[in-house]
Amino acid sequence: MSTYLIELLAELNRYSGIPGIVFFLLMMRKNGNIRIVFFVLLASFTADVTIYFFIRHVYPNSFIISNTWYLIDYGLLTWLFIKMIPERKGIVALLGIIFTIGGITSFLFFYSFLESNTFIKAFHSLAFTVLSIIAFFEVLRESPTDKLIHYPVFWIMTAIFLFSSVTLFKNLFQNYLIFELALSMESYAYVHSFNNVFNILKNLMFLYAFVLVKK
């Protein structure tokens, strides 16, 4: 993968949320679950753009922004899943409690807010991989399988599952790759490019879900 392609993916990723945000603001403004998806998209876009300007103009370490985004995104996605699979809200709540206790403990004893917190990142990916699978089974149980691609919830869950499952490995081993293996930032950019690809796909799937709701 060339340096040009890596930079292109980074640029596309940074602004890939704009079409969905603009479409929602101009065409929708609905209440309910789809508005939560909009907040998820908006938070992701804001974090990506803030990280870009933070690194260039404020401080070379962006972990304070990414840690904040993981906390906000976990809260938003928890809200979304409670709404989408209310019959499984006990599981959602239990995972939320584990995340909260583990997050507080990890920041108090293992990581500062200026470091990449492996626990909140990996648990975020793991929790929403599991919850999206549970949601898929709920959708399959209640909807005809031949019409799944016409349901916005299918694309929302697919987006969350793909992004969470793919980033799980990176989030588990990010600190190991950078600090233990001393992987250069240039080499790590190749790893991070996979994150960018699936974040772009996630944002486009959210956009398509908005389009389906508008229909």
How many helical elements?
8
Give, in order, the helices and strands: HHHHHHHH
What percent of residues adopt helix (DSSP H or I)? over 70%
N-end to C-end Cα span: 39 Å
Largest sheet: none
What are the segments in which pLDDT stays under 50 over at least 5 consecutive residues?
Answer: none
Whole-number radius of gyration? 17 Å
Beta strand count: 0
Report on the architecture of this protein.
By secondary structure, this protein is mainly alpha-helical. It contains eight helices and no strands. The longest helix has 30 residues. The N and C termini lie far apart (39 Å).
Fill in the keyword field for this structure:
215 residues, mainly alpha
